[in-house]
Amino acid sequence: MSIDIVIGSNYGDEGKGITTDFLSSVAFSKKNMNPVVVRHNGGAQAGHTVQSPNGVRHVFHHFASGTLTAAVTYLSEFFIVNPILFQKELGRLDSAGFSPQCFVHPDAIVTTPFDVMINQAIEHERSGGRHGSCGVGINETVVRNLEKEYRTTVSDFLNPGIKKVLTKIRDEYVPKRMKHLGLDYHNNQILTAIFDSGIDATLFSFDDIMDDITIIGYRYLKSFQNIIFEGAQGLLLDQNKMEYFPHLTRSNTGIENAVHIINSTGLDKIHDITVTYVTRPYLTRHGAGPLNHSYGYEKPYELISDPTNIPHEYQGVIRFADLDIDLLKRSIHYDLAHSIGFPVKKQLSITCMDQIPENFWIVQNGIRHSCQSKIFPKFLTNFVGFDSCLCSFGPSRKDINWV
Fold first, then answer.
1. Which residues pair with 226 in a beta bridge?
2. β-strand pairing of 345-350 with 388-392
3. Distance CA 102, CA 74 (A)
4. Helix (H/G/I), strand (E/B), else coil: 401
5. Do 228 and 37 contact (CB within 8 A), yes or no?
6. Closest CA to 394 of 285, 327, 279, 303
7. Under DSSP, is residue 331 helix (H, G, I), strand (E, B) or coil?
């Protein structure tokens, strides 16, 4: 058995999707293994783009980025399930000719339309002081689930009493939470739009997806020869990076959750474990928050193409910056030092190498330096102190090479 852990190194949008797709393909074709991809953090706010060699393109939110290679999806207890968005994404995959298998941990928490409503309402209220939310209720789901009487997990939806819980959320929790946030509960247009339909929409969507998921614990992972942990967001958005508060995500974005699952499942004795940290050769940030050495909304290089990160009502317009390699190295080594207790192989994945010119800019010691693209992968791999590196020179797995 082998284990891969894929982690974004920056503010998200690094290329975790193409990296996971590639590793899944390698497991199938070169190692002759059947992979399962575990989503070990985040939720529907993730947007991992994968394009197959024959041109099929999908942005993954719930399902694993190995889906186009026929890998199985497993949503862990740390993943936040949104049944309405799950249903919509499954429909898009079905239309494209894919029928993904999806297994879900019983303790995965579930987003309701009320969480989404509160999330969107507070972001509207913040106006120019927004936190960078995607508007799909991630933080609000986590906050609500801290209160036992309002908690909703996947296994709770097997209980006929779930409708009472949802009613209690609507009638008790929502007014209380909105008052705490300083929002006008009685005159909120977003609330009015979903107040009567939110419960039925949640129940209908979950009932619909029950035919497409299997609820099962971590023991199921032992039946696979290759486990790929696919992270969401990036190290600089981790909920514990308090120096960047409040522009964070409500999630452990490093290897902490994956390590917990490995330890709790007795997989820590596996000798073939590789952690892959993903970055572009330049920085991006889609959402509010600081971005040093920024070009603002202007692309620094003409060849940069990002059809996934279009202007967004809550995140705004994607921004660009030079890659600070000192910050990259510190973030990666901090994650490794504070989260893992067993030996692993460590490698980089540098995506979008085809989008930079022969000479481009990086930041080291706070100063911009010109760097040759042809030597950059080996230079960065040595600088970080890793032994191996993947590089993508195009949009699909066929464009990835080992360095």
1. 2, 35
2. parallel
3. 6
4. strand
5. yes
6. 303
7. helix
Contact residues for 338 (Cβ-Cβ < 8 A; gap 6+): 256
| pLDDT of 135 above 80 | no
Contact 247, 319 (CB under 8 A): no
> What mean pLDDT is reported for the chain?
91
Bridge partner list, 103: 74, 214
The answer to whether the bond into 53 is cis (omega within 30° of 0) is no
Whether the CB-CB separation of 305 and 355 falls below 8 Å is answered with yes
Contact 267, 46 (CB under 8 A): no
Query: What letter does residue 190 receive in the DSSP assignment?
Result: H
Angular region, 135: left φ>0, alpha ψ -120 to 50, beta rest: left
Give 97-155 as a DSSP string. T----EEE-TT-BB--HHHHHHHHHHHHHHGGG-----SS-HHHHHHHHTSGGG--BTG
Three-state DSSP class for residue 90: helix
168: helix, strand or coil: helix
> How many angstroms separate the CA atoms of 53 and 307, rounded?
17
Q: Please tell me what DSSP assigns to residue 89.
A: H
Angle 60-150-102 (CA atoms, 0-180°, nearest 5)?
30
Does residue 124 have a pLDDT over 70? yes
Residue 185: what pLDDT? 66
pLDDT in tens, 194-218: 666 778 888 888 888 888 999 999 9
Q: State the Rg of the chain over Cα.
A: 21
Contact 34, 221 (CB under 8 A): no
Alpha-carbon distance values, 95 to 21, 236, 263 (Å): 20, 35, 38
Strands (DSSP E) along 15-56, which ranges? 35-39, 48-51
pLDDT in tens, 239-268: 998 887 888 888 999 999 999 999 999 888
- Rounded to a whole number of angstroms, the distance between the first and last alpha carbons of the chain is 24
